[in-house]
Design goal:
Layout (H helix, E strand, L loop, with lengths): L1 E6 L2 H17 L4 E6 L1 H5 L3 E5 L7 H7 L1 H18 L3 E5 L2 H13 L4 E4 L11 H8 L2 E4 L2 H9 L5 E2 L3 H8 L6 H4 L6 E6 L4 H12 L8 E7 L5 H8 L4 E5 L2 H7 L2 E5 L2 H8 L4 E5 L3 H10 L7 H6 L5 E4 L5 H12 L2 H17 L4 H14 L1
Parallel strand pairs: 1-2, 1-4, 2-3, 4-5, 5-6, 6-7, 8-9, 8-11, 9-10, 11-12, 12-13
Amino acid sequence: MKYYLVAGEASGDLHGANLMKALKAEDGNTVFRYFGGDKMQAEGGELVKHYAEMAFMGFTEVVLNLRTIFKNMKACKQDVLNWKPDVLILIDFPGFNLKIAEFAKANGIKVCYYISPKVWAWNQKRVLKIKKVVDHMFCILPFEVDFYHEWGMKVDYVGNPLLDEIAQFNPDPDFRTNTNLGNQKIIALLPGSRKQEIERLLPVMLSLTDLYPDYTFAIAAAPTFSESYYHQFTGAKKVHLLFNNTYNLLNVADAAIVASGTATLETALFKVPQVVVYKGGTISIAIARMLVKIKFISLVNLIVNKKIVTELIQEDCNPDRLNLELQMILEGEGRTKMLNNYDELSGLMGKPGASAKTAHLISGYLKS
């Protein structure tokens, strides 16, 4: 079978790679072509465009980069049409992927969508479009099944692919030694993988380093940026910069400050107490506050449907407030409560197997 996958962010690259691995196990005659990243490329096939050229954060940034976005979209449509895959598999990234889905459907190409767009957060009527242009939707969050059912759409719940990735993780026993982290307790900084969020969040995170001399600070750096890029923020501060080692870092971290996104869920599954942070452009956040219909921004809180981790959004994301919240999870009752709530989250998440289940369902749908 010929599989064309489209992932536009680091998390999509991760889940796309695991799905590709599962598809190879399910179908011994796989051929892949994709928009994605390094992890997908490691699974074989042909990388058409790297997600680093595609990910823009917030309403304002999208508007400012519309020319690039439309150029990428046009290139993707033409490439899909020329290659004629047996199935197009779209991974999250809805602003881009729903347009690709519409084009593919109009040209007789089967469309599977892995990791639902967050239509439950805003503009819920997009479900009506999804029903028209997507043949099969595979959801990874438990509450999404009921949401789609309310709109008269049947979807497959496959569990969460992060559980697959974490289950495959083998900790490096010499990680501290190899990275010169020493024996102090560690505060992990996860500022995200996109330029806009790193530049807005990392300076706030780094403002705390001098306040905690008994802790070691370490940044989970995005592989799409260089050391020199991060050094413009770290300067002379004593902070470690670690590339391609996020899980090893979380495995030894005592606490974390995390950009809102998939990393908040990963951090929770590693049982690391965290503070979630988010900063958008002034116009972007104003629009979001008018449109978004959810109580929380972190996946951790959304899945359990209550506040487990503190979310510092926009003006609340400042050094004083961040310091206060970090203190509350380093020791004492706040830390204990968060760790206990993580157990409830793990129970709702279930067990690994999302990638294999999705691959099996896709294979079955194609054969039928």
